[in-house]
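At your convenience, could you comment on the folded chain following this short note?
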Amino acid sequence: MKLKKTIASHLMTFLITCSLYSQENLGSWNILNATLKINSKWSAFGETQLRSLSFYDDFHYYEVKAGGTYKISKNFSATTGFGSYNTYSEGGNFENPIQNKEIRTWIQINMKNPLEFLTFEHRYRAEQRFTNNGYKNRFRYRLGAQIPINNKTIEAKTFYVSLWNELFFTNKEPYFERTRLFVGCGYEFNNNVAVQTGYIYQFDYKINDEIGRDFMNIALLYNFDLTKEEKEYIPKTSD
């Protein structure tokens, strides 16, 4: 418990420092996610995102997506989904011309490694991207961890720490495209609702143009369980 409180204390200090960062450099990354558990094997999800390059100004991106997950075993599942992803020019709110209009599908493998007081998550995703600049493939790997603070597991009335880092690759040179880091915390009110906030750093690699972006992330997560089994709900986003 002492280690958990130390981790939470350092995380809060880090997030407060980020929130005091210049608003001209800190963007906003907002997520609304809903999951529907149909039975012990199948679940569906829907998610929408809205992003800005300044703190709740210069909105340049939004996405809407949905999909389904099949639970193969306790710690192993497969996901498929599709969505619409839209990126506008910088310098205003949804400034035209639009830079990228994309329809995306993907298949994904999810694996969990639960340990004594935290759970590691591995996510492997292959994306098929139909953009206004042609068809593209992309491959993503995300390693994450969640640590409950005031309970042994993430359950109702639990504060938790969430950490992950994701790498993006393509099948064309220079192959490495992006890395995305998240450091945050959340609170699960009950088995249906959780809220999460944190800091996202996204680095986009281009041959002669390396760009890093900073975002304050806020996510509201809903879980609707048709089975009424009252099992552990692990809050997480779909992106």
Remarks:
- The longest strand covers residues 95-114.
